[in-house]
């Protein structure tokens, strides 16, 4: 890694900023979730995410040149998996507090570790085994009490949807690991946003809501937050190794907890507090083997 890229302090700041941006996105989506169908939310989120991403690429003088691709099918697979993951994650946040929905997203590195063994022939190491065990324990702490209570408030659906979203996200990230050998980070982000917009638009015949001014503004903000968060996350991986950023996954969850408490009046559950260290410890272990993936963003 050269001196220009080895700036861990800047990488950490950008990781924290990306957590703030992604929390803002999820807050906006949750705020409109009762009135706006998921597909409609995804369309607006993706459409307006193009604005910061295109501006960023133009500043770097990578637009439109960086959009040239030699792997159109790879982009289609990555974007399709990412769009499906967004459908599941946005559906989950309608049933769960923002903090719990965000915590489930953190399962993606663990699913990536498993996928690396099953699909890419990577070694099943102590780190991966530990990550899986810790993640399963964390999920048990979250889900088992709901099973005993009957899950009447829809939380079990939320956990299932959020876990499926994390699994699909892991598939998308494994695809990125593969295609980033020839494709730029800008092209990967751009085509994902375009495919997600089209996937959301395809749900229009199923019925969209007539938006109020407030709902429209929140959907626009969700896109701007999402696009800016993606840029910040990409740059964070450029300037700091994954292993150095992993501890700050804890900091990234401070914002969803605060949003639930301040904006939605949702208290922190005891299950969440017990699951949090277990699942994030698993993420940290999985991330120790993610250094090559982190380097794929440093282009």
Task: Give a quick rundown of the structure.
This is DMT family transporter. This protein has 299 residues and is mainly α. It has 14 helices and no strands.
Description:
- The protein is mainly alpha-helical and 299 residues long.
- It has one domain (8-295).
- Helices cover 76% and strands 0% of the residues.
- It is built from 14 helices and no strands.
- The chain has helices at residues 8-32, 38-59, 72-95, 98-105, 108-120, 126-149, 155-179, 185-201, 213-239, 242-245, 249-252, 254-263, 270-288, 291-295.
- Helix 4 (98-105) packs antiparallel against helix 12.
- The longest helix has 27 residues, at 213-239.
- The chain starts with 7 loop residues before the first helix and ends with a helix.
- This is DMT family transporter.
Q: What is the CA-CA span between the terminal residues?
A: 11 Å
| Count of strand segments | 0
Can you write the helix and strand succession as a string? HHHHHHHHHHHHHH
Query: Regions with pLDDT < 50 over 5+ consecutive residues?
Result: 291-299
* Portion of residues within helices: over 70%
Number of helices: 14
Q: What class do helices, strands and sheet pairing give?
A: mainly alpha
Global outline: globular
What is the average per-residue confidence, as pLDDT, rounded to a whole number?
A: 84
Evaluate the radius of gyration.
Answer: 18 Å
Protein name: DMT family transporter
